[in-house]
Every structure is written in C-alpha cells, then in structure tokens.
Design brief:
The chain is mainly beta. About 10% of the residues lie in helices and about 45% in strands. The chain is built from 2 helices and 10 strands. It starts with a strand and ends with a strand.
Length: about 130
C-alpha cells in the first residue's frame, strides 16, 4: 500500500512552512517512530501568542515590529515500510496538508492511503531566519 506523507496541522496559527531537513533517503526503511523530516515555520503570529500582554504593549508603545519566531517541527512516522518518494525536497515551501513524500508498506495492495504522523517542537528561536 502506498501511503502519502503530508505536512500535518501542527498549530492553529501555522498554515505553511519550509522543509528544512529530511532524515531519510528514498529507498530507506521506515519504522514506527522514525523521524522523517523537519519543517521550519517563521511567524509573527507565533510571536504574538508567545509574548505576554505586557511585552506586546511595550513593543506597540515603542512603535516596533513584533519579532518573528522560527520554530522547527520534527515530523515522525507512525507507519512502517520504505520511503518510496520525496515530493517536497529540502528548502521547499509547503502548506499544511501538502504531500511531501510516500511510504510503501509492502503489503501487496495497490491501494493508496494517508501515512500517520506525529510531531514535536525541536527548537524555537526568536528572531531566527530559516
């Protein structure tokens, strides 16, 4: 069975990101819990949520822009098989729900489905660039 790997919804404030690193190559085995790829998000919306109200008032009073925050999410496989395709290479901008790759489960079926994934925040850097 071919399973489409998609960029999962990691936060209500996040609608897009950039593939920053693939941890596997096409043809490599994928096990449950393997790290597939990282996505970097740069967002003022995340900064607004993370900053306290007091700091937001200070920034507004000084007529300064809110800082951008760079957050890296690590996307992890919840399925096993072989990474059979990468459709969004490193550096590619992607939207939530976009296909980024494919896992072949080798179960003999020609059916297609969605790969199950999870994610973790790897690092958050205020003012960092992707």
């Amino acid at each position: 069975m071919k399973l489409s790997i998609r960029f999962p919804p990691v936060s209500p404030a996040v609608t897009a990101g950039k593939v920053s690193e693939w941890h596997l190559q096409v043809g490599e085995a994928v096990s449950y819990g393997d790290h597939l790829f990282d996505v970097t998000i740069i967002s003022v919306a995340i900064a607004q949520r993370e900053l306290g109200a007091r700091l937001r008032r200070f920034v507004k009073a000084k007529a300064r822009k809110l800082p951008e925050v760079s957050v890296v999410y690590r996307i992890t496989s919840m399925d096993a098989g072989t990474l059979s395709a990468i459709t969004a290479s490193t550096g590619t901008s992607i939207d939530v729900g976009d296909p980024v790759g494919e896992i072949d489960t080798h179960d003999g079926s020609d059916k297609a489905g969605e790969a199950r994934t999870s994610f973790d925040v790897v690092r958050a850097n205020p003012g960092a660039e992707a």
